[in-house]
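[scheduler] slot 2 assigned
[scheduler] job type: sequence-to-structure, two independent chains
[scheduler] chain ordering preserved from manifest
[runner] begin chain α
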Amino acid sequence: MFTLYKASPKFPKIQPLNTKFIQRYIEKFEESIRNFEELQKERVSS
């Protein structure tokens, strides 16, 4: 007999993700993109 639902060592265990953490990460990423775009505009205009 073999066990059908044995945890495979090839696949890592999936951790539950904190959605608030992800939202904050995305917001910071979008903010950094906006800041970068502003810097690019300033370089072009000067």
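[runner] end chain α
[runner] begin chain β
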Amino acid sequence: MKLMYGRLADKLKTTSGEFPIMCYDLMNGIIDTYALTFAEFFEQLIDERS
């Protein structure tokens, strides 16, 4: 299991070494990407609140 997670993590990592912010919909089995970096995700949260 740990090896499989490591391979998946390597594929998801961006060129800057960050991981995308994702949401997994358990009911429908859909993986949705919110943002490619945490900074982008944080900016989206701020914009939604403004």
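[runner] end chain β
[qc] chain β: The CA atoms of residues 30 and 48 lie 23 Å apart.
[scheduler] slot 2 released
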